[in-house]
Design a protein that fits this description.
Helix content: 40-55%
Transmembrane segments: 34-52
Oligomer: single chain
Number of domains: 2
Structural class: alpha/beta
InterPro entries: AB_hydrolase_3, AB_hydrolase_fold, Arylacetamide_deacetylase, GDXG_lipolytic_enzyme, Lipase_GDXG_put_SER_AS
Main location: membrane
CATH architecture of the largest domain: 3-Layer(aba) Sandwich
Strand order of the largest sheet: 2-1-3-4-5-6
Order of helices and strands: HHHHHEHEHHEHEHHHHHHHHEHEH
Number of strands: 6
Bound molecules: 2-acetamido-2-deoxy-beta-D-glucopyranose
Largest sheet: 6 strands, parallel
CATH topology of the largest domain: Rossmann fold
Organism: Canis lupus dingo
Shape: globular
Keywords: Cell membrane, Endoplasmic reticulum, Glycoprotein, Hydrolase, Lipid degradation, Lipid metabolism, Membrane, Microsome, Signal-anchor, Transmembrane, Transmembrane helix
Number of helices: 19
Distance between the termini: 51 Å
Strand content: 5-15%
Length: 436
């Protein structure tokens, strides 16, 4: 504990110990003394559970530890429920998350939230619009702008802030989740909803300027937004419909789980590497037995022919600057497990891994914003995509946060308020304001 105290100031633990001393000294009956010991032991166990070593540069480390411990225990309960055969672990986890994040009655008077089409003719000036795709590993959370029972506050707050500050129409898509549907159903939902919205009569109904529409999303939502962007460039009718794409710590590839950021953040909350790989396997309805092998890149070893050509498109020794690659070494297995991509060919599909798309696809993408966080396994997915887009001639803004962690942008209000949450959100909204 000495070391922990030194690093991060375990002040609360110290304050706890005199209480225990008093307990002991007062000559209490045996049962009470036993419960004191038990309580102290529980406190130590709880501290042990909550404490994880975090780099000093991360935003609000203690709060992040508590948030992570809460999320971790929710995951463990869900895994238990899964192993007892009571429910899919992601259904259980989403149930817990949604119950935790229930929205308070808060709602902004200046923002109109609606589930259905307006009937009347709008006479207001035309507005900008963002189609937003929420994150959550293709399996969790909710669009939250709807009145569905699953509404939770995180995305509601984000979309409300965007609508207010940009005076824009925000369309937050309630796509179907794992385990109800699997890849590529999530993409189909997002594409279908966006196509519907882009019809002239629908845009007219919502007073949206057809020349000022963007696609955006965070994490797995950033993955879906990027996939949608690529699909639109390949469709003559949709080619120039989007003015910008804005991707927040997007998931962009499943071929290399040993990029420098994956190596650096193996155990970083909110998204340790193992958890991310498991989200991928769940997205494809794959076999959990593959997760360990995928962690060491056995699925894309040199003897897996299908992967060889694609690996060059995420060659981080050339795509990332030395300031990020540092002393990290590529993990390339000579022999691995070719069964993995044969059973899960979706792993090598550019619709799931937009980073590996052909340059011919990338070059038609709109102006792009990519936000990345230092304390995030997905940092390098975003930075490599920025680099590949730039090489393809796309105008890219890469907005990197040294104290950011995965998911931080939705944590802006008490008790899960993080300084970097506010800064990332402001920076993102500012870019949209200036570019959409
Ligand atoms: C990776 O593949 C090699 C060669 O097949 C095998 O020996 C090793 O055990 C695998 N590693 C994991 C973690 O599955
Ligand atoms: C990655 O890039 C480096 C440096 O440009 C090069 O030496 C290496 O052969 C490349 N690897 C692959 C798999 O393309």
């Amino acid at each position: 504990w000495g070391a922990c105290r030194g690093d991060l100031g375990l002040g609360s633990l110290q304050r706890g110990s005199p209480g225990w001393g008093a307990c002991k000294g007062a000559g209490l009956p045996g049962t009470m003394r036993a419960s004191c010991v038990l309580l102290a032991a529980l406190a130590v166990l709880a501290a042990y559970y909550v404490y994880i070593p975090l780099p000093g540069s991360v935003s609000d480390p203690w709060k992040l530890m508590l948030l992570d411990a809460t999320f971790r225990s929710a995951q463990q309960v869900s895994n238990l429920i899964h192993s007892l055969g009571l429910s899919h672990h992601l259904l259980a986890l989403n149930f817990i998350i949604v119950s935790f994040g229930k929205k308070s009655a808060h709602s902004s008077a200046r923002v109109k939230v609606t589930d259905t089409a307006f009937d009347g003719v709008e006479v207001r000036p035309l507005k900008r619009s963002i189609v937003y795709v929420h994150g959550g590993g293709w399996a969790l959370a909710s669009a939250s702008m709807s009145r569905s029972p699953a509404e939770i506050r995180y995305y509601d707050e984000l979309c409300t802030a965007m609508a207010e500050e940009l005076n824009a129409v925000i369309v937050s898509i309630e796509y179907r989740l794992v385990p109800k549907v699997y890849f590529p159903a999530q993409i189909h939902d997002v594409v279908r909803a966006t196509k519907y919205f882009l019809q002239p009569e629908v845009l007219h109904k919502y007073s949206v300027d057809p020349g000022r529409i963007g696609i955006s999303g965070d994490s797995a939502g950033g993955n879906l937004a990027a996939a949608l962007g690529q699909q639109f460039t390949q469709d003559a009718n949709l080619k120039d419909k989007l003015k910008v794409q804005a991707l927040i710590y997007p998931v962009l590839q499943a071929l290399d789980f040993n990029t420098p950021s994956y190596q650096q953040n193996v155990n970083t909350p909110i998204l340790p590497r193992y958890v991310m790989v498991k989200y991928w396997v769940d997205y494809f309805k794959g076999n959990y037995d593959f997760v360990q092998a995928m962690v060491v890149n056995n699925h894309t070893s040199l003897d897996v022919e299908e992967a060889v050509a694609l690996r060059a498109r995420l060659n981080w020794t050339s795509l990332l600057p030395p300031s990020l690659t540092k002393d990290y070494k590529p993990v390339v297995q000579t022999t691995g497990n070719a069964r993995i991509v044969r059973e899960i060919p979706q792993l090598l599909d550019a619709r799931s891994a937009p980073l590996i798309a052909d340059q011919k696809v990338l070059q038609h993408l709109p102006k792009t914003y990519i936000l990345t966080c230092e304390h995030d396994v997905l940092r390098d997915d975003g930075i490599m995509y920025a680099k590949r887009l730039e090489s393809a001639g796309v105008e890219v803004t890469l907005d990197h946060f040294e104290d950011g962690f995965h998911g931080c942008m939705i944590f802006t209000s008490w008790p899960t308020n993080f300084d970097v949450g506010i800064r990332t959100r402001n920076s993102y909204i500012k870019w949209l304001d200036q570019n959409l």
